[in-house]
Amino acid sequence: MAKSSADSLGKAKKVLDRDTEFFPKLIGVEDGGKSDYAKGTGIYHPRNREVLERLQKHAMKKTLVLIQNGEYSITCDPAKPAIGLTCHDYAGNRLMDFNAHVGVKVLGYNHPSVTAMQKQIARIVDENGGILSIGAGTDFPIVSDELPDAIDLNELLVDTAKKSGFKKIAKAGGWSTGTEAVENCMKVAYDWKKRKLFQKWGKNAEKYWKTLEEKLGYPLFGIAADKCFHGRTGYSLSMTHSKPTQYAYFPKISGIKHINYISKDSKEDFNIYDLVDIEPKWDSMRKLNRVLDNGKIPIDLLAFICLEPVQGEGGYVIPKKDFIKGMVEFCQKNDVVYIDDEVQAGMGRTGKFFALNHFVDSAYNVVMSMAKGLQVSAVLIEKGMDYEQQGRASTTTGYGRVEDIARGYAKLQAILENDGALMKNATNMGEYFKEEVNKINNGLITRVDGLGLMLVTDFETPEIRNKVYLSLLERGVVPLTVGTKGIRWLPPLDVRKQELDYGLNTLEKVLKTF
Known about the structure:
The chain is α/β, with parallel strands linked by helices and 514 residues long. It has helices spanning 6-9, 46-58, 100-103, 112-128, 150-163, 178-201, 205-216, 234-239, 244-247, 285-293, 321-333, 402-440, 462-474, 497-511; strands at residues 66-67, 72-73, 86-88, 94-97, 169-175, 221-225, 256-259, 276-277, 297-298, 302-307, 337-341, 366-370, 377-382, 445-451, 454-459, 477-478, 480-482, 486-489. The strands form five sheets. Strands 5-13-12-11-10-6-7 form a seven-stranded mixed sheet, with helices on both faces. The chain has a four-stranded antiparallel sheet with strand order 14-15-18-17. A three-stranded mixed sheet has the order 3-4-16. It is globular and about 75 Å long.
């Protein structure tokens, strides 16, 4: 696959015109038409099948969008032209990416802020002979006056958090992936709670801890939500609860309890006190054991509550405001850490930089995880929550590669500049999308919802959803499925009305075929 992309694109322009060339263009298919499986046109081009055959032969099974009984998958060729929502697959088909490359492209392809940073990176390599493709290590800080570095990114993230109402946020740490960010939020919470306990228990601390280890495996608890997704490694996998295939039969850490995630339309409610006993005086192991044996969590042993501000893999579920607000306030009152998982919903996707701000104006006892659109991943913590020992939370690669930090910083600046114009665009375009879907709905869509550009259309059955989804792909429009009956629409913050209109018009065509 290393040969020139010119073999399949011919004399295609190196740069697409976003005003006129944003629409799909499929090989062997008339404009606006549909890929033909029998004829091998469009996304069913033999080159796309070749990719999947090679993957199946030499690559481990991972998450893939498989269609036509697993014979094809949507591909993306990074060497071919891209702009905004538009990119090309390996065969040369022009597609519209309505999932922002699974949430990573918080700004559209080749956004000016990112391309400018890319040119700066190239200049440093060409003119200075600089070293960039190395990990931004933590043992030896890698800093430069020529490019934004990890310290710059930390400072900008902390400043943004403070301005967003999380005034006690004082420090940030960097990793490479979202699951690492979530795991390190958990480690911060466990460590902070353990220190609080040892201060409270005094001379009995070690004895109590060992006794609890014998009874529980690990003495501290955490709470997550049913159908949540927080990652697929170690600690985070112990919370993830969206699809059994992601977590079934893998080992998990002890002490993670799951609660219902209360949607804004739900008639049910949740009382945290049904699960947690807040009796403040634990002066003996006998009292702790009594609470544990009654199936409740003693408040002294609850380290954190971890929630997504909008539930992602679980179906793009928007929670009741009182649910999120109530959990935050509970944590503040009871020395519990609230872990705000902003990996998918953050970076302005919902119209606010932190999606948590849709439910609270300010908060403390909060740590935050970020990734996806940031290019790298980060943990934001309050000053008193930092580790007492150097190296307790360490990683060889830090924020990932030096150039990834620079790109992430450029994205962050673009989102924040001009009084948050891109976030306002996310709010306006999201409202427009929902209004237009309601106009074209012929009854097959049972729910259209979302915050900003984190959008979902649910259908009557999984079978109908799957048919609609396949028909969209065959026409070159590429969203993603979510939950059991949903299609998620996650365009970048700089999406234009004409780009949304193309996706909406295509969706309308598909609905009319049923």
